[in-house]
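tool_log.txt
---
The assistant was asked to compare two proteins side by side. It first ran the structure predictor on the initial sequence, then on the second. Raw inputs and outputs are pasted verbatim so the downstream comparison step can read them without reformatting.
(1)
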Amino acid sequence: MNERQDRVPTGTTHDRRTDTRWGHRNLGGPWWLALLLVPLLLAALLTAVRGGDIGDDLRGRALTALKGAGFDGVDVDASGRDLTLSAADGSALSAADADKARDLVADVDGVRVASLGDGLDGAGDGAGAADGNGDEGDQGAGDSESAEPTTEPTDTQEASPSATESSSAAAGGVKCNGLQASIDKALGADFVQFDELHRIPNEASKAELAAVAELIAPCTDLKITVTGYTDKFGSKRLSIARALNVSQILVDGGVTADIRKVGGHFSRELGDNETQAGRDQNRFATITVK
């Protein structure tokens, strides 16, 4: 019999396909762990690299500031934004110079803490680490200053003079009383003046400072504050450098009383900062005594 018989399916056919696309695969535990760890490792690596770059940059700028001020024998180590000063091989600094070096580094833009380390830690005045949040650069650089300038200091505590200090003040007689008026007269209305971009007073002001040092030297129990200023284009670092140099001239002139150095930036004006003549007046430093 040659009849054609149609074959009827006796079961159900299933179509099985293997999908190898990443988003459609079932991820096991190890894969999820890898997805979590890789971003964390990359973030940690990026943080370490950036931290090293910041430290190297701050160290380089701190060394430049130190060398510009004549501190060639000082080295700097950086840990992020924290900088530590140390004496180079065969170098030594006095306590006053160590403090000056620390102040310069603390005023470098971006430095959080500047402290004295090996070879210098015993030279400081015990004031501890100096915080730094100042801005770098000199006048004419067009710096954009965002930090608030340091204001004129006001001391609220007066030290009780010892017997030696009292006798020293008595030896000066009336000269130590009303000394501020004598200082202001010696310096004149423009105070201590600086040439453009200069950290050291001009020649006329150097002569005036020599006279001021003679007035102050006999009065050893004074509290002296030297505040440096700039015009609106100057930096805070420049203002503290001016205060440091004026203080050093006084010390070289025989002043032994305590001197506080302050960077006033452009918080005080003698002239109009919008004119060249006014900006010339605003590069100055003041000396106040109590």
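(2)
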Amino acid sequence: MTEQNKTQSVLEKIKSFAIGYIGAAIFAMGTTYFEAQSSYHVPRILSPIYDVFGNIGLAIGMVLLGAGLMYWAAKRFLKVQQGKAGLMIGILAFFIIANYGLIWLNNRDKPETPGTIAKKTEAAVQGAERPELDSPEANAYLDKMENLLITMQTAKKSNDATAIEKTEQQYGALIEELSTIIPVLSKTSTYRDFILYNANITGKINQLRGIK
């Protein structure tokens, strides 16, 4: 191999590594966009897809684009370095892992994403227990909500249309009652626990009502 050919071979390898790194970066970032983020780095070529299909479309587009670039990089590399497919696969895998590390470092001190916050909130609601409250009105309200849940479960099991209609009326009255309790309770330290437990009971009631 002449000196010129060697130089050309080295340049092709460098180009293939550069393309592979860019592809790995796009691929790694794309896989994180399946969950809603507070902001996105949108490649210009994928802007129309993001505008129409949102973060899921962007995620799929980036994964495919990144994979395509890595495949192209591998083909360029193997043209000048035949029989070294394993080496290129290892390099691309390293690029992907390195980019995941960079993403983690960049996001470590950033606020949580809306998707993560939603999951944590849902878990807090599902695990909520009835709090001890100083407000007689709030305690009475929760008693009524718990009793309504039991009454509604019984009415649904027996398929009693009259009883179901009555529970709907009771539920509407309790919503009005809640609107008078919240302004007072919001000034106390137990407000968060009250809201979480109320959301827990309300969620179960709404499931019986066919609302998720």
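---
observation on (2): The chain has a mean pLDDT of 84. Residues 47-80 form the longest helix (34 residues).
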